Amino acid sequence: MEDAKQSLLSPRLVGEDSRRRQEQLLVKPSNGSFTVGTEDIPPINGVRDFFRECLIESKKLWFLAGPAIFTSICQYSLGAITQVFSGQDGALSLAAVTVENSVIAGFSFGIMLGMGSALETLCGQAFGAGQHDMLGVYMQRSWVILNSTALLLSLLYIFAAPILRLIGQTETISKAAGMFSIWMIPQLFAYSFNFPMAKFLQAQSKMTAMAVIAGVALVLHVVLSWFLMLRLGWGLVGAAVVLNMSWIFIDVAQFLYIISGTCGPAWTGFSWKAFQHLWGFVRLSLASAVMLCLEIWYFMALILFAGYLKDAEVVSVDALSVCMNILGWTIMISFGMNAAISVRVSNELGARHPRTAKLSLVVAVTSSFMIGAVISIVLIIFRNEYPYLFSNDSQVQRLVTELTPLLALCIIIDTVQPVLSGMAIGAGWQTAVAYVNIACYYLFGVPLGLTLGFVLHMGVKGIWCGMLLGTVVQTCVLFGIIYKTNWNKEASIAEERIKKWGGDIDAQGEEE
Question: Where found, per UniProt (predicted)?
């Protein structure tokens, strides 16, 4: 079964003949110049060649993206379902869970996921180059770094109540959310184990196993939430227990899958190599965290700024919340495509297939744009009907209708932009993109949004327009960088990165 699935993606060579073949693909000429792997797609010389290769690549991409999207939706739903059941327990429980999920856990989630994303570059390129034995070492190094980070972030959970009071939450909500945060510390450490395992499995295109585990976890989560929170009346404690158990279940199931032998040479057991070259690994992890966190926190800031509007703008904030809810679900699709393109680009660059990597990006951007366009068109067609699903307030409904064109444009941009970010992760551009994000988001988008919203009195529309323009500029800059990219050079850099972090250096025990 695995062999049948594997053949759909780039060929993975096994056996003695295959090993010799892999060596031929990875060898450099004596003059040190880069040579493209012989299994890269041939140059495209016409429309027929282009569409033929796009069809082949599309099958490979969706083989990864489909399960990845399903996994993202299931894991996103764990917190959403907990909020729904908390609402049945009372308004205070709902407020406590919402604040903890969006502020405390949301902040930590961004940092941990970002640091874990370093493995998308390293594991993906090493797997493409046939350095399968290093994947397990990379994962263990990431475990060491992320668990150390979790120890530091646990202070945020412990002191959540005074922190929430400091940023303006009421005493009652701060106390309840602070107590819930302490109960949620196990989830923080579950993140530190889960994200490296997820990137480890993604690099090997084992998305289906992750999707099955996430689906089972979601079903169990619903049943246990009902039983503990409503039937037994455990309230917030029950919410914390179930949410922790769900993430721990995902971790245990993924780890058992990894050590069961399904990953072959990618997992050979625990190794002391996990503690080598940690500082260099930390630097790459921090660059990944900065890049991703700047994107996640950008639109969290939109809600924060909208909350500072005058009381007359409360209706606008409610309408914005409806739009952000819809945008959040569509972004889950983008996250799945983000993971898929990261795997494809990193695998193909590691295998010295620059033309295939470039084509994969073209297919991913086109597919995501079409998905975003369809969703946007549907929202515009039904802009007078769908607001009734989210609010009974006629003013909110009217404003959501007015904001729909802006929401539609935002969806199109936010279905394309994560694909470009995934490509950047797959190619190892985290540091460069972090600087782009700082400039476009926080030096351009945020000041423009605040100026339009508060100085020019455009309210929530102005804030959103300004920050959306920051995203548009960031997307255009990434397109420009990609347009000028020398893909042969990127494949050569991937080879050097594999040597730096992979078997050559680690086997010899050289210092960085």
Answer: Membrane
The HSE-up count of residue 292 (CA atoms within 13 Å, CB side) is 27
Angle between the 430-437 and 459-483 helix axes, to the nearest 10 degrees?
150
Nearest Cα neighbor of 263 from 202, 194, 192 is: 202
- On whether the CB atoms of residues 281 and 425 are closer than 8 A, the answer is no
What b-and-e string marks burial along 222-257, b requiring 16 or more CB atoms within 10 Å of the CB?
bebbbebbeeeebbbebbbbbbbbbbbbbbebbeeb
Q: Let me know: does 130 contact 204? Beta carbons within 8 Å.
A: no
- How far, in Å, are 174, 291, 375, 498 from residue 357 at the CA level? 48, 22, 27, 17
> What secondary structure, in 3-state letters, does 106-174 show?
HHHHHHHHHHHCHHHHHHHHHHHCCCCHHHHHHHHHHHHHHHHHHHHHHHHHHCHHHHHHHCCCCHHHH
Q: What phi and psi values does residue 348 have, to the nearest 5 degrees?
A: -70, -35
Q: How is the chain split among helix, strand and coil, in percent rounded to 5?
A: 85, 0, 15
The total number of residues shown for the chain amounts to: 512
What are 304's two structure tokens?
Answer: 């924060």
Dihedral sign (CA 194, 200, 205, 209): negative
Q: What is the pLDDT of residues 403-439, one digit of tens each?
A: 899 899 989 988 888 888 888 877 778 778 888 888 9
Mean of pLDDT over the chain: 80
In angstroms, the CA 161 to CA 100 distance is: 10
Q: Outline where 276-313 has alpha helix (H).
A: 278-306
What's at 29, amino acid-wise? P
pLDDT of residue 130: 78
Asked if 335 and 71 count as a contact pair (C-beta separation under 8 A), the reply is no
pLDDT per residue over 307-349, tens digit each?
666 644 556 666 776 787 788 778 778 888 888 888 888 888 8
DSSP-derived secondary structure letter, 387: G
**Would you state the pLDDT for residue 314?**
52
Q: How far apart are CA 378 and CA 330, in angstroms?
A: 13
Q: Nearest to residue 113, comparing CAs of 177, 208, 190? A: 190
Q: Are 39 and 347 in contact (CB under 8 A)?
A: no
Query: What pLDDT score does 511 carry?
Result: 35
Helix (H, G, I), strand (E, B) or coil at 50: helix
For residue 249, how many C-alpha atoms fall within 13 Å in the half-sphere facing its CB? Answer: 19
Q: Residue 508: what pLDDT? A: 35
pLDDT for the residue numbered 381: 94
DSSP 8-state class, residue 264: G
User: Exposed (0-12), middle (13-18) or buried (19+): which is 485, by Cβ within 10 Å?
Assistant: middle
Q: Which two tokens stand for residue 100?
A: 């903890």
